[in-house]
Amino acid sequence: MTAHLIFDEPDDRNRLDSMAQDIIGRPIDRSEGALKVSGRAVYAAEQATSLWSEQRTDCLFGILVRATVARGRVTSLDTADALAVSGVREVLQDPRLVRHPAQGMARKAPPQEVTDVACFGQPIALVVADSFEAAREAARLVRVDYETAAAELDPASAPSDLPEKKQSSQGDLDAAMRDASVSLDVTYRTPSMAAAAMEPHAALAWWEGDRVTLCGAYQMVSQNAEELADALGIAPEKVRVLSPYIGGGFGSKLGIAPEAVAAAVAAERLGRPVMVPLTRQQEFEIAHRRSETEQRVRLALDADGLLTGIGHEARVSNQPGETFSEPVQQATHYTYRGEHRSIRHEVARVNLTCAGSVRAPGEAVGVTVLELAMDELAEKAGIDPVELRLRNIPECDPESGKPFSSHMLAEALREGADRFGWTSRRQRGRQREGEWLIGCGMAAAVRVNFLHKARVRVALSAEGLTIESSMTDIGTGTYTILTQIAAEMLGIPPERVTTRLGDTDLPEGSGSGGSIGAASNGSATYLACEEIRRQLASRLGCAEEDLTLKDGRATCGNRSHDLAELIHEPLVAEGFFEPGKAMGRVRSSTWGAHFAEVAVNEVTGEVRVRSMLGVFAAGRILNEKTARSQCIGGMTFGLGMALMEEMVHDGRHGHVVSRDLANYHIPTNADVPRIEVHFLHERDAYGGTLQAKGIGELGICGAGAAVLNAIHDACGVRVRELPATPDKIL
Ligand code: MOS
């Protein structure tokens, strides 16, 4: 049985709040946590050496050969030395290897012209050998001749285009700026950033007849299977993708990547399973980057401290022909009031690492810069920064006029200010401790909220409960929250629930991207469980609503049965959740507020973040612990964005200079202070059957601005070119 819901109407029944067990929301530990910390969870690169399947004991290893020019064409490949290395089987040149990663949810392989090199580091061949070491050694010995072409390496001067759908304007912003009682016109720059997931990409592929299995680390396996099929020119049913454990994706694993195609092509050719891992250096060169941005923000304020105009112009970059561009202004459309609005979005065409979705694409850098500008405006207008934001919250989406599905920004700002002691700290003013100047800052957190279609199968038997979907868990807690939802709905203790994810042979889940996972797949799980409840109720001769399922017992009126007595063979149901017309009627977003205290050393320019506080609203929180962990992670990214993250391309040749974790700085434990996270109670009727929204990406949005605003409060310096390294503070 499939319970199919097309989500055309909001759901405000709130029935989960009156369920018997209170399992949803509880901060229970990750159900796969013990496997991960004990090394029993097998990650992508470990597949080749694990005893998971006998199939893989005869696995070959492939290493991608990288281009060493930024633009041109390969004219010849001298493979003699590479082939002379003991254990080397073949150097493969196949046009299908040359592709960069597909963008998330593309369902199609990237369209890149296969004979051209479009950036430094682009794969051009694959060396296959009996061992990883031999393949790596031989890959260095392949000599490549190129016919080079002039490359565009500077996003600031490269030719650009203006994608029509990303421009918008209403009213007359220039006039609003002229008439404003206080106005601000300021430009900020953020650098290229890497996803920098802990687990590098790796793919193992093998063929059985005309069907290929790809075992790797991917966020959206059902879409990824279609992308691989498209790249190989075979039917999607002929591809199975397995991604049971993923060591962080952050966008870099949204689409299939070069190692996936290479492994599949080589495995077919050599008739053996082939494992292709990326080195950490290749991770920076091949996995897509977040585009650098140049952002001009214009704000016009009237005498009452109300915004009359907002302008947000962004220049980002990507390779020629790519359709993705960092959606910097995504939340600018609706965060603050003002009838005169202008958005300009320009994409420079460069021969640098392909740009794509990285850790809250858009808002991570867009909200951060908007919130930096708001802090500057508050200072200029002499209005408290929290108060300025509170005054400018719109009643409905200021561009479309649509109502918000729910709106919690004011609550988050007030709650955060209260918990942080904002008013008294600001009144006390800047503090000094020896060489250290102490200051505090704040920013709003805003992130669009999406739902996606998702299918989940649930089976209830006398032994327990099984949940199955191709949905993934990228370290975010999917295994755990789906377990909690089904346990709650069917009255089974979470320990007796088995959840299987990350396999395209299972019903098609949404995948993990854009914070869609929890609400979408959670809704599908809910629907499947509701169907099983109906089946149980009909066996008991009562209405589903009157059925109480708790501790493995079904109770209806004065009758109570052990579930095992009622179930002779497993009850199986699929839930299919499809976003319908409901979401189109509203603007759906998640909300929050960041507060930070920093110490700035006036001698060295060093910044130490002393504390961070985030208050967030994202509908029903499904697990306090996994949700909190994601917010802490996002706020840590924000700290990194403010102080250290910077991917540097060499301006002469286009290679990535900071292409390892020693040179690409991300926060380590010693950099991260106590981070406090508080959730607001919220139920969003537009959040699927759970009234939940995505939380994975909210924590980063604006977090860096709170840190940078605190730096200004401490020492009076506005860093408008991120990150705020000591040289920019002094
Ligand atoms: Mo996310 S950047 O959509 O994985």
Describe the fold and architecture.
Helix 8 (363-381) runs parallel beside helix 16 (703-715), helix 12 packs parallel to helix 13 (517-540) and helix 15 packs across helix 16. 25% of the residues lie in helices and 26% in strands. Among the domains are: 2-30 and 451-584, 2-Layer Sandwich (Aldehyde Oxidoreductase, domain 4), CATH 3.30.365.10; 362-448 and 588-729, Aldehyde Oxidoreductase, domain 4, CATH 3.30.365.10. The chain is of the alpha+beta class and 730 residues long. The mean pLDDT is 95. The strands form seven sheets. The protein has a seven-stranded mixed sheet, with helices on both faces. Strands 8, 9, 10, 17, 18 and 19 form a six-stranded mixed sheet that branches. Strands 1-28-22-23-24 form a five-stranded mixed sheet. Residues 104, 219, 249-251, 254, 357-359, 361, 513-514 line the site of dioxothiomolybdenum(VI) ion.
Bound molecules: dioxothiomolybdenum(VI) ion
Strand content: 25-35%
Can you tell me the residue ranges where pLDDT is under 50 for at least 5 consecutive residues? none
User: Given this structure, which CATH class of the domain at 362-448 and 588-729 is correct?
Assistant: Alpha Beta
* Strands, count: 31
Short overview:
By secondary structure, the protein is α+β, with helices and mostly antiparallel strands. Helices cover 25% and strands 26% of the residues. The protein starts with a strand and ends with a helix.
